[in-house]
Automatic annotation (TrEMBL):
One of its GO terms (molecular function) is proton-transporting ATPase activity, rotational mechanism. This is V-type proton ATPase proteolipid subunit. InterPro entries: ATPase_proteolipid_c-like_dom, ATPase_proteolipid_csu, ATPase_proteolipid_su_C_euk, F/V-ATP_Csub_sf. CDD domains: ATP-synt_Vo_c_ATP6C_rpt1, ATP-synt_Vo_c_ATP6C_rpt2. GO terms for cellular component: proton-transporting V-type ATPase, V0 domain; vacuolar membrane. Keywords: Hydrogen ion transport, Ion transport, Membrane, Transmembrane, Transmembrane helix, Transport, Vacuole. The chain crosses the membrane at residues 40-62, 83-105, 125-147. Belongs to the V-ATPase proteolipid subunit family. It comes from Hondaea fermentalgiana.
């Protein structure tokens, strides 16, 4: 259960930080250029997706834990150390990568949308940077899915 909790908690901390930090940038940019607020909400959405990665892995890990099996009146635990460490590593993989990606999206999203409010030609560059930051969380999700099988 440690892996499931690490996946959910760390990924959602990253998502919350990214959402909050990028949301502050969108609010500040909205004062300068209110017509561009909906276009520049992308970092907030991308940060929210990171939390979904953590949720997917935590549900997958928690559902893979079986109840002890009873043989000859003795309960035998089918969830061994090897599986426990694999699940913990999977949870840490998606959780820590989600934390890092959320931080990156928050920082880039905060300053990026403010600058796009001043110069709209920076929008494509901002989106590319955000995509590469989101890819870090996606890599963590892929590793976690491989480890959990």
């Amino acid at each position: 259960m440690g892996g499931a909790s690490m996946a959910l908690v760390l990924a959602n901390v990253g998502a919350a930080y990214g959402t909050a930090k990028a949301g502050v940038g969108v609010a500040a940019m909205g004062v300068m250029s209110p017509e561009a607020v909906m276009k520049n909400i992308i970092p907030v959405v991308m940060a929210g997706v990171i939390g979904i990665y953590g949720l997917i892995v935590s549900v997958l890990l928690a559902s893979g834990i079986d109840q002890p099996v009873e043989q000859d009146g003795v309960a035998i635990n089918v969830y061994g150390w090897d599986l426990g460490f694999k699940n913990f590593a999977a949870g840490l993989a998606v959780g820590v990568s989600g934390l890092g990606a959320g931080y990156a999206i928050g920082e880039v999203g905060d300053l990026g949308v403010k600058m796009v409010g001043l110069e709209s030609r920076l929008f494509v560059g901002l989106i590319l940077i955000l995509i590469f930051a989101e890819a870090v969380a996606l890599y963590g999700l892929i590793v976690a899915l491989i480890l959990s099988t």
